Every structure is written in C-alpha cells, then in structure tokens.
Amino acid sequence: MKRLFSGLIGIALSLGLTPGALAAYPDKPIVYVVPYAPGGTNDSIARVIAEHLAAELGQSVVVENKPGAGGTLGAAYVAHAKADGYTLLNASVGNLAIAPQLIPAKFDPFADFTPLANIGESRSVIAVNPKLPVTSLSELVAYAKANPGKLTYGSSGVGTPGHISLEYLKLLAGIDLVHVPYKGSAPALSDVISGHVDLISDPLANAAVKSGHLRGLAYFGAPDATDLPGVPSLLDTYPQWNFSGAFLAVAPRGTPDAVVTRLRAAFDKVLASAPVIAQLQAMGVSPQRLPPEETSRLIRKTHDVSAEIIEKANLKAQAQ
C-alpha cells in the first residue's frame, strides 16, 4: 500500500502538483488583488468577476486593494506570494507592461506571472470638464496650442494606460499637457468632474460622459461607441493610433498546473456568461477571451508599443 501511495505521489508531482494541491482546490478563500484604489475600473471589474468566480469555484473570493506606484506594488505583492492559487492579481497591461518601464518594480512582468484569463480590451474616453471651452478633439488641440502647458490631465498613476495614451496624444497633436497622477481612476475622475483637473483618458469616463458630468471628445480601444452618441473614434483623427488598455487575471509563476487548469476553466466560464459580459460592457470593457499564449503576446506587444511612446515623449524612469 505504501508503494502504491508513493507511486501516486510521484505521478502527481510529475504533473506539476504539490502534496498541498492534492487536496480539493480551493479549500479556503482566494484573495483577488486589485493594484489600484477602490472605485476605479480595475476595482469594479474585479468585484464583478470575484462574485461569479466564487460561485463557480464554490469558495469565497475576496477582493483586496493594494494601490500605489502605478499598480506595481500590488503586482509585486502577488508576484512574491505563495504560488498555490490562493493569491491572484486582477492586472492591467498598465501595471504589467508599462509601469515597470517608468517605476522601479520588484517583479519581472514576463517571468513572474502565469496568465489565467484575458478579461478584455478597455474602451477609454478622452473627456473634459464641461467648463473647458472645447467641444471636439480638434478644439482641444487648438486650445492646448494656444495655451501651452496650462491644461492638466489626471490619470490612475504613472505608467498607466491613461498616462501613456495622453502622452501619445501629445506627440501626435504636438501639444503640451501637464500630467497629474493619482492612485486610481476614481480620484482622478473626481477631480476632473470638480474642475481641479481639465481632462482624463480612462474607461471610467464612459459613465461620466453618459451622465453629463464630463464631455466626451473621442474614444479608443473599441470598434464602436453607439452608447455615446456624438463621441467619435480617435482613429477618425489619428488613423495611426495603435494603443489601448486591457485587463487580465494572473497567478504567481510556479502555481501548480492542476490549479492553473482549474482557474483557467473557471475564469473562462465566468467571462462567457451573459450577466458578466453585460456588466463589463457597461464599464466600457469589451470581453475578449484569449488563449494563455496570446495573452502573453498581448502583454509583450503593449510593452513594446508603450516603450516607443515613452522614448519619443522623453519620459524618464523614476530613480531606484
């Protein structure tokens, strides 16, 4: 009997299972880390997914916010967590592919994580406070050129898609805007609505434009915006635009294969469900399920595109 048990253990280990993973997974709550402040798009997505993932796995999934440093603090926390499937990251291409190029990060975005699911591409809206005397993207560009360095834009942090997208716009339009980084989309959006900052580029701006709190000038990251009448695609003005944000779920590298397989199947079911799709679309996220290999390629592509923008915009990495 001992020989049989030892043989089974050997087979399990050869399949990437550790003795702890031999027990039914999951047998305790899972922590789903959001690397930004509460109330932002990443946070909202994580809470929708956590609710449905818990039902699929039959175990609690607890959302835990760990904001700071463009999302790299939360990502580092997960990268160095025990690789047992109980600490996961609701990531964005920002904190994996972009921010580490500008902020000292204690992880390797390509070596320290295992992709679980590509959640979807985010539709960002470039939106302004209605008091700003512009009603179109061309008027914003003209106003910025007439008032160089006077317009400010908020983002969820250094190295986030909201930061890089408006640096990209600055390059294409030849304008000067001043960046005001926050620890998440929600506080940045709040300051744009209150008039402390002039504009923003963020998925969270979708709802603010619909409610009339902000004026939408252009969108990107989605094929259409029929729910935002009068807001044109950024491609109409800049057909060379090739940047967008995306959200994904990852686990620490080294998570047992059987656990990864279980999680990937669970995420796939959750992201295929009609209620989740509807909720994500309402946030400006276009659900896009991809194989793990393509998710990894997406991270690499975003890294390379943003690296070119960072170089041309002469953005400097923060000191170690």
UniProtKB/TrEMBL annotation:
KW S-adenosyl-L-methionine (keyword) present: no
Keyword Signal set for record: yes
Leader sequence segment: 1-23
Tree of life domain: Bacteria
Entries under InterPro entries matching the protein: BUG, Bug_dom1
Key words of the record: Receptor, Signal
The family this protein is said to belong to: Belongs to the UPF0065 (bug) family.
PANTHER family the UniProt entry points to: BLR1237 PROTEIN (PTHR42928:SF5), TRICARBOXYLATE-BINDING PROTEIN (PTHR42928)
Protein name from the UniProt record: Tripartite-type tricarboxylate transporter, receptor component TctC
Organism listed in the record: Azotobacter beijerinckii
